[in-house]
């Protein structure tokens, strides 16, 4: 049976289960809630029992089989959702998206299905990508089974190199016990469509193995569904290329190979570990707890299922396995400001001297970026006071897998007032002081995509501002140091090169400001040199505001650079990668149901001819005046690794994002509705010896200590 491919970019799944009160079925936000474990099982059972699909379990068996890779919520069409949310229409049909690998047929392919209605599915239909694009089998994401077979093939292929590896590193693949080698794989997997050739970086398997390359990189072709036909095509060792394992082994045996001998890793204080070492010069204590976030009178937000409310804000949220956080029906003061705000893709483009480094162009949706949402540590990843939520992914598994504490929600003191003013009388006193404490509500999750950890935040401020932010941390993607490699990065340890790379993150913002019919206008600051109207012969140089309506989608793509709009996203370098989205700082298009995402889980392994091409979104010459519009935002930064990235890249200086700010939307700052300001007025000016202090909160915040000790689980198991 041949099924066609589907249109979306991100395939995987997640369901969020709060540790607090569960959402009532009648809550409108529940139409966007991720699938429950029961719904995930129901979809899997239904599909596994369809004889025409011929599905086999994900675990075990051959690669050339039909299997279910992913199940996740298929969000309802926007028109149906708005009919339900705004006009009391029928609740939209609840469906799942299922990604199937059809490998047990003459022409293998990947197909996506819509399965429903939930909670008791009874039918499915094929989902198609824009333009009817099919997904070739070679574009599929990697599975655990393929990784297991890849490891077996690698170990067998490089067996003749065991003497070389033992002599150079003290580690090996054969009978290695606790001194084993491992590998990291690079993508894209080849140089053109249909290929599946992967460069593997060999590393010593110690804590933080990403920083311990052995100097050997292996190109292994694993396109054929039969692993017996897989073969090593090229090798790179210590700056030299070899055409075969035999050639490298013989070079070593003859003594003609310059060997890169690595020092013995220490039993303690390994440079790639988090173990404390050294002392601060100031001598101030670090072996005691620092400042903490507290909620002295309890939580000031409401979390019910997947609905979050805070001050004037109300929104629904979910966590997709492929690309992570997705907000729906975002409102302030009861008015919808955005229908959807979501992470689309995170990409990193590297340079280097070794083949693995120069080949690395990571597109993290293809690595299950959203399903890499491992447990958040209370008091470290999120404050002790945070509300934690579990996630359920059905990705490359034979049932739902629970990821405990995958998300958290907390109110954060920003450390700076939201507003303040001291009104001096310029005589040693004052007329009044007023200030409003700075607070924001944070919705957070993380993605640990192998070496890198991304911390994803949406922040809600009381003045109607929404911030989307991502911090990059974790281990750098590093390769073996050679003198030629210095051109492409920094030597960060004795045998380690930190490779230069650019991080780019893409967001979708479906704005519905005062309805779905919106237009797009940019504003730029220009300068004029004019005659001074009140002083003859004098000149005035002053700024003025240039407004430019953007009428059609080809003119709505803004190259990366520095210009001003209400978006206020930071600039990033211009690139021309396989995905078009990073070319634009901001692109605005008409919204279409068949353009739900700018990327795809298939783009990583087929960037040359991907089923989703963002460029097609902005080349259709459509009018964008008084239409339902989507803003596509790209943010990013250049990372030149340095010694201070050891053991991990730190979050300060490695964060990017953008703001949604009201711009003449309200009559005044909506945070005036907050009851948290402080106003101080002197009763006897100018002496100011008697003061009137106005507060609308209790005079004292009270104790701020969380009584529970630190605990952590860290497991994620099938349920």
From TrEMBL:
Residues 292-539, 583-671 form the Copper amine oxidase catalytic domain. Its cofactor is Cu cation. It comes from the Eukaryota. Residues 549-574 are annotated as: Disordered. The active site is at residues 364, 452. Topaquinone (TPQ) is generated by copper-dependent autoxidation of a specific tyrosyl residue. Residues 39-122 form the Copper amine oxidase N2-terminal domain. PANTHER family: AMILORIDE-SENSITIVE AMINE OXIDASE [COPPER-CONTAINING], COPPER AMINE OXIDASE. This is Amine oxidase. It comes from Tichodroma muraria. The gene is Aoc1.
